[in-house]
Each structure stands twice: as C-alpha cells, then as structure tokens.
Amino acid sequence: MKQRVVITGMGVMTALGHDLETFWGNLMAGKSGVGMIELFDVSDYPTRIAAEVKNFDPAQYFDKKEARRMDRFVQFAVAASLAALKDAGLDVQQDTDPERVGVYVGSGIGGLSTWEEQHKILLEKGPKRVSPFFIPMMIANMASGQISMMTGAKGPNSTAVTACATGTHSIGDSYKMIQRGDADVMICGGAEATITPTGVAGFCALRAMSTRNDEPEKASRPFDIDRDGFVMGEGSGILILESLEHAQKRGARIYGEVIGYGMSGDAHHMTDPDPDGAARCMVKAIKDAGIPVEEIDYINAHGTSTPVGDRSETAAIKKALGDHAYKVAISSTKSMTGHLLGAAGGVEALICGLALTTGYIPPTINIENQDPECDLDYVPNTPRQADLRVVMSNSFGFGGHNATIILQKYEE
C-alpha cells in the first residue's frame, strides 16, 4: 500500500503578503502586487515594473550574520519554511525523527544578486576580494541546505532546477518520496529573487515581459487579448507534506491531500511551449491520481500572460480534459502575484490548498477583453465560491519542462 500524503503546513513570502492571512486576503480582494521596481534603477529598461517583496526584514527570521551569508532567494526560502513549520505545529527536533524529515526546495535561477555583486568586485578590485561565501551563497541548492541546517532536518535533501516548473517538481517529487517510504515529512516548494539588473535585462532581451509601465497593476493580464508579456515576481512558497499516518499520530490539521503528479518534456523548443507536452503532463497526473477528468473542479493555470503561452495552455487543457475543459473553473493567480519563476509552483500549490479549505476560487484579474482563442472559464476579476473537491496546478518551464500536481479535499 502506498502512503497517503497530506499537506499540514504552509508558508509564503510574496508581494501580496508575508503571511498566509494577508496573502489570501489580498488574493480574494483581487489586489495586484505589481508596481514600479525599487530595488535598482530601471530608467534605461523597457520593462520597469515587477512584483517585489516589500518591507522584508531578515532579522525577523535569523540573525544578521546568517543573513549576510544568504542570497535573497535563500532568505525568502528559509523565512517561508520556518513559517510553514510553525503553521504545521511541527518542531523537527522535538516532534519527530529528524532523519525522517527531508527538504526539497528549488530555484529556477538561484543567487543572481550575489553573482552580480561578486562579479562587480572581481572586475573592480580583483580576484582576491571575491567573497569566500560567493559560491555557497549563489548555488541553487543552498535554499535546501540552509533550511536543513536551520531546522535540523536530516532526511532526503535535494533541489530541482527546472525553470518555471521548479516549485511543482519539488512538491511532486517530495510527494513521491513520502509515498514510497523515504521520508515521513518533506519541507518543499520553491524560492526566487531575480528582480536584479541582469535578471530583468535578460528577460527584456527575450521580449518576454510586459512593458505596460504606465499601468503596473494592470500589466499582468492572463488570457486577455491585450496581454503583452509576463510580470516578474519574487518570493517563496513552501508546503509541509506528511504521510497521513504521521500527521494523524500527532493530531495535525490537514489542508488537503496530494493525490497525483505528472511530468513531461516538450522536446520542442527552448522558449516556445508545445500544447502536446503540457497535455501529456496533465493526463499523467490524472492517471496517477486514479480519477476521471470530470472530478477536477478547479485548475490553477500556469497562465503567465504571454501571448503564446496562454493560448498554448488553453489548447493543452482542452486536449487533456476534453469536453470537461469548458466546465472546469480556471484561474491564473499570476495576474496578482506576478510570475515567481522557480517559486511559482510552490505559491500556486499553496493557493490550491487554501482554495480547498476555504471553498473560494481566486480570480484572474485584468480580464477586460478575453482572447477569443482563450475561450474557457478563467474566473474573471471576482473570486468565486465553489464546492471544491479536486484541484490541479500546472507549471511549465523554459526548456519544455512540465509539471502538474493534483490535490484533493481531505477525507478520512
């Protein structure tokens, strides 16, 4: 018998809030977290907007010495993980066997700001002035490493780096680790902090981001005919997954159950998505969950607000779900959070868990003139109350990496 796997804790760090209550309240209010970039001078950039995490104080989570040795993406990951453990009521050292607690937190890009800072020092002051902490601060696996060190988790420890599919791969892989008995608890999700001069310049060069600088809050508009690209976000979304047996033994509160995971590769193009790859990914997740497609009540779409991406995902949902595609509620919360790249899947899985427990679907804001080629129900502009039992979250990354997870309302 495979272990049943449940969600017992969540932690979030985004432009819409540093805690679950604030974050969910802003989502339900249809609030955009997008504004003018303040982290650096963007006057020469075609895109000058992003969804920044404002008023983040690392000292609330760890001391200044530790903070100086963590890139911003790692700081977000550790802060969200500590919040998730607190939400789960779980102390790794006191409440369970630390060797049965794992960490799987990914990042699509890693410590970009650290790389920029140290490269500048190299050019201006020479190689002897480069920090000895440069490499361990920059590498993408250091979020998982620091969380392990901060919490004492000694179980499986790994990192996915699959672009915008990273967070969902991290959660799906963790689900499978618990299911096959490799761990009792997994701290999992994603973290990202790429609102930096090089990061923004790179995506601008790709012409992938919105240039609606005069209306930041309306710039991320998935499935709208006037969308012109994604809006970059930053932050972290972390889940605590546990075997049902472990959660029940300690009387944990349960947000929902993970029942399906699928992944696929497009084998098509670096940046141009293929609907077939995404459709196969969803079909695999549905097969893994062992449910008919008609049971899916809600999909948190990848929905980046790019012209090609939104059309491709719409076609993929139709291919995977058939006629049910026109009956299922779909929304892209990136319209409010921005696109958190490697952290997106963690934040959006968390949103799915909150939707299950509250019975409310967050909207896709800024749909003013829906694209005729995107003709499904995207829950436009206003949250919707619904009796949700099964929900799905999609994440698709550059390189053709696809990941889908399916959550279900918990029933004993």
From TrEMBL:
Role this protein plays: Involved in the type II fatty acid elongation cycle. Catalyzes the elongation of a wide range of acyl-ACP by the addition of two carbons from malonyl-ACP to an acyl acceptor. Can efficiently catalyze the conversion of palmitoleoyl-ACP (cis-hexadec-9-enoyl-ACP) to cis-vaccenoyl-ACP (cis-octadec-11-enoyl-ACP), an essential step in the thermal regulation of fatty acid composition.
Residue ranges constituting the Ketosynthase family 3 (KS3) domain according to the UniProt record: 2-409
Pathway(s) annotated for this protein in UniProt: Lipid metabolism; fatty acid biosynthesis
Similarity section: Belongs to the thiolase-like superfamily. Beta-ketoacyl-ACP synthases family.
UniProt xrefs under PANTHER family: 3-OXOACYL-[ACYL-CARRIER-PROTEIN] SYNTHASE, MITOCHONDRIAL, POLYKETIDE SYNTHASE-RELATED
Gene Ontology process terms (BP): fatty acid biosynthetic process
GO CC annotation, single: cytosol
Catalytic activity: a fatty acyl-[ACP] + malonyl-[ACP] + H(+) = a 3-oxoacyl-[ACP] + holo-[ACP] + CO2; (9Z)-hexadecenoyl-[ACP] + malonyl-[ACP] + H(+) = 3-oxo-(11Z)-octadecenoyl-[ACP] + holo-[ACP] + CO2
GO molecular function terms noted in the UniProt entry: 3-oxoacyl-[acyl-carrier-protein] synthase activity
Native source species: Paenibacillus xerothermodurans
Keywords (A to Z) from UniProt: Acyltransferase, Fatty acid biosynthesis, Fatty acid metabolism, Lipid biosynthesis, Lipid metabolism, Transferase
Active site (UniProt): 164 (for beta-ketoacyl synthase activity)
Gene3D superfamilies: 3.40.47.10
InterPro entries linked: 3-oxoacyl-ACP_synth-2, Beta-ketoacyl_synthase, Ketoacyl_synth_AS, Ketoacyl_synth_C, Ketoacyl_synth_N, PKS_Beta-ketoAc_synthase_dom, Thiolase-like
Protein name: 3-oxoacyl-[acyl-carrier-protein] synthase 2
Pfam families cross-referenced by the UniProt entry: ketoacyl-synt, Ketoacyl-synt_C
Enzyme Commission number: 2.3.1.179
